[in-house]
Amino acid sequence: MLKRLRSFLESRSEPDITPTVPEGQRIYAIGDIHGRCDLLCRMIARIEADEVGREPADTTVILLGDLVDRGPDSAGVIATAREWAKRRRVRILAGNHEEMFLGSLERDETLRHFLRHGGRETLLSYPIPAEVYSRATLEELRQIMNEVVPADDIAFMQSMEDRIQIGDYVFVHAGVRPGIPLQEQKVSDLRWIRAEFIEAPENRDFAVVHGHTILEAPHISPLRISLDTGAYASGLLTAVGLEGTARWLISVQGEPAAAAA
């Protein structure tokens, strides 16, 4: 009984660290975009305006993955992110949906999974007529994908990162497996983990910023910031700004999915 009580109190105790970004640096992290190019464009404008209103800093923007699928314009999101990265430092994490997109170019089972989870919308954001898509077999659809998805878009997704660490913050798409050193984390966990991470006690010596699990509002605790607010359906895209020990939220609200499609 005493052992269980001690474990409970330890899991409820405040962390020993105050997560900090190195002096002179500023970070903006953006949650799952999922094909909402309209919201990404608004978020870019908001972040650029926020940056102008602050002291000069060495700024990094991090996209937390799942740029594609579900929303109406994944191709536009990729093009916009690539263009933004030409103007400032933008680092991009690979989410499980980018993994499915790339895998579907080669494997039938991955393609089926991709199409069931928003891949249809992704493919129709490229120049594939809806009637051609609806008649195509898996083999035909893969051939069409390889013809219409630009090689630069594929290379862009292949270049996405799995984990980014800056100061006391670790940025991943989905989370980390508790009790495993960062250097030994499996890519599959960084992109797919959910309850095992979210429900675990926050007894790390670093803060995790992630997306992947949809919330009505962002979760902010000392050692975890969760930013996926279901932009593709809710119309709400959320980001966080980090500098020193300071944190601030930035959000843009557009039309829900039915009206935006």
Walk me through this protein's architecture:
This protein has a 5-stranded mixed β-sheet with strand order 3-2-1-9-10. A 5-stranded mixed β-sheet has the order 4-5-6-8-7, with no helix packed on it. Strand 4 and strand 5 (169-171) form a beta hairpin. The protein has 12 helices and 10 strands. It is globular, with a radius of gyration of 19 Å. The protein has a single domain, classed as Purple Acid Phosphatase, chain A, domain 2 (4-Layer Sandwich). With 261 residues, the protein is an alpha/beta fold.
Q: What's the SSE blueprint?
A:
Blueprint: H1 2-12, E1 25-30, H2 37-52, E2 58-63, H3 74-87, E3 90-92, H4 96-104, H5 108-124, H6 130-135, H7 138-148, H8 151-158, E4 164-166, E5 169-171, H9 187-192, H10 195-198, E6 207-210, E7 219-221, E8 224-226, H11 231-234, E9 236-243, E10 246-253, H12 257-260
Parallel strand pairs: 1-2, 2-3, 5-6, 6-8
Antiparallel strand pairs: 1-9, 4-5, 7-8, 9-10
Helix pairs in contact: 2-3, 4-5, 5-7
